[in-house]
Amino acid sequence: MAVNVETLDKLERKLTLELPLEAIQKEVDTRLKRLQRQVRMDGFRPGKVPLSVVAQRYGYSVQYEVINDQVGRAFADAVAQAQLRVAGQPRISEKEGAPEGVLAFEAVFEVFPEVQLGDLSALELEKLEASVDDAAIDRTLEILRKQRRTFTPRPEGEPVQDGDRVTIDFEGKIDGEPFEGGQASDFSFVIGEGQMLPEFENAVRGMKAGESKTFPLAFPEDYQGREVAGKTADFLVTVKKIEQQQLPEVDEAFIKSLGIEAGTLEALRDDIRRNLEREVKFRLLARNKAAALDALAKAAQLDLPKAAIEAEIDRLVEGARQDLRQRGLKDADKAPIPRELFQQQAERRVRLGLVVAELIKANDLRATAEQVEAHLRELASSYEQPEEVVRWYRANPERMAEIEAIVLENNVADFIFGKAKVTPKAITFAELMGQD
């Protein structure tokens, strides 16, 4: 087999493969003889069909299979001989003008790039820090109370207040015409919890049961409903029912209902603190890791293989379709999903994957069995039955591979922070949790 590798572009290569027709025909004959012993045809006993008849019926398909197999093996041998790392699937086509007795093919493909890692000691990184204070515990306790709240009718004549659940009818029009999603009957929401646009809540706040009001509402330019984004609608709202919330007392019964056997406020607050500290740790780890990996990727120099980007876009599009299917959208497989929406995300993922892989290889970073076990145990500790969670992960190699990948990423981030110029940055608990 003659091998000729040509550079077409930065990462694109062309490989010429030449296969002797004699070897191809020999393999075709071997397979046809094997097929002869198995094939059944009317008028012939099993295994007694003449080879010429078998060749007439199956010769073309067998030859096609043989050529595909031999081209595939020849390509694999050639790239191994040339020490090339192929990115994506090659585009293989027959080449004209081959010497007599030879079939020639051209394979055009991309190779993975050489990655030049930047100087990690020159990186400047902020490392976020946060802690759990009493205010965070108080806020979480209020959330727990709200999750178990009840609603009772507000006394007749009293206006709507923050925290009240209102039941309304409403109808919106733009330029005098109704629009899709702009009307509802017996619609309920809680005032002051951001379920509706602020202008809508402000209009309902202070109304009394039985009252109606018309008011204008300007939809934001980035509103999710594109047909009304940036437009102003006139809404007619009628308040049908007002209910005030009743928060449970933080007593022994309430505390025990949360799984705190001691039934004391101190035990509840200790449990909340432990859970919040665990959440803070994971969130800080995720944000700091993302910052470190982004800095690493920006500092590196490499060309991105188009085939890898296209493959990543395929995965992202399929993920979007899967999400649509889970949401119950009919014909999700036919829904138009523009590939360009995922271009930037795919490029980032490919770039980051190549750079991180190079850093791991260059510095022999790995996830140890002890680290994987520790991370698994810590992850499981947030559940009521940790051992069941541990067994669930261990029962599936793919799930354990996910744990190992997370640990490896954490090791990479630690390595980067250990080399870079790091400035601690304190943020509040609310900032970390996105509650501001």
From TrEMBL:
Sample GO molecular function, one term: ribosome binding
Main location: cytoplasm
Domain of life: Bacteria
This protein's record includes keyword Cell division: yes
Alphabetic keyword roster: Cell cycle, Cell division, Chaperone, Cytoplasm, Isomerase, Rotamase
Cellular-component GO terms for this entry: cytoplasm
PPIase FKBP-type domain sequence ranges: 163-248
Record has Lyase as a keyword: no
Job description of the protein: Involved in protein export. Acts as a chaperone by maintaining the newly synthesized protein in an open conformation. Functions as a peptidyl-prolyl cis-trans isomerase.
Domain comment, as recorded: Consists of 3 domains; the N-terminus binds the ribosome, the middle domain has PPIase activity, while the C-terminus has intrinsic chaperone activity on its own.
Protein name stated in the entry: Trigger factor
Organism the protein comes from: Tepidimonas aquatica
Gene: tig
